[in-house]
């Protein structure tokens, strides 16, 4: 009679049972797609920057754009009197300018030019040198004359130091007058016309005034052009 197997209790003494395998979640693919798309866009952006930079460089080398040159060629001051009783400045001054286009390929349209005259940091007049009525086109390698007439009177409040400077200038027969010009211009290359540019021109002038029969000549003055 075959031996009976001994009765086993609830305990299990065999090899260890491996833990249940947890389901593996793969990384979502949309993150990888976003990174790939970002990389493509970045490469496109870099390529566009390089292309635009090369285009600007080629344009600059071919056209060689240069700012216009501006000079005050003549100044005629026949009145510059300050009345301390009513703080009124009486003046009469004519300035002649010359604007030169040094470019070989670019024409310039002068659409508007406004001149502002100052004495001792006090503005005493605005004058429209160029308006739409007399705007003009300046061709390459050419110069164009302009003029401004400052005539009239203006109430200015000058302190004692400024009045002292005014009297000294009157004694010397030369007035330090600052003129600022606001431009609105456009450039033309062939049939292409640019948008508006608004450079500012600054002129520090020493304007002579006849004093005691002594005649002092005005020296042509180059002005600073600031874009």
From TrEMBL:
Keyword DNA-binding: no
Recorded superkingdom: Eukaryota
Biological process terms in GO annotation: defense response to other organism
One cellular component term from this protein's GO annotations in UniProt: plasma membrane
Cellular localisation: Membrane
UniProt entry keywords in alphabetical sequence: Membrane, Transmembrane, Transmembrane helix
TM spans (from-to): 35-63
Major subcellular location class: membrane
Protein name (database record): Late embryogenesis abundant protein LEA-2 subgroup domain-containing protein
Originating organism: Phaseolus vulgaris (Kidney bean)
Lineage, opening ranks: Eukaryota, Viridiplantae, Streptophyta, Embryophyta, Tracheophyta
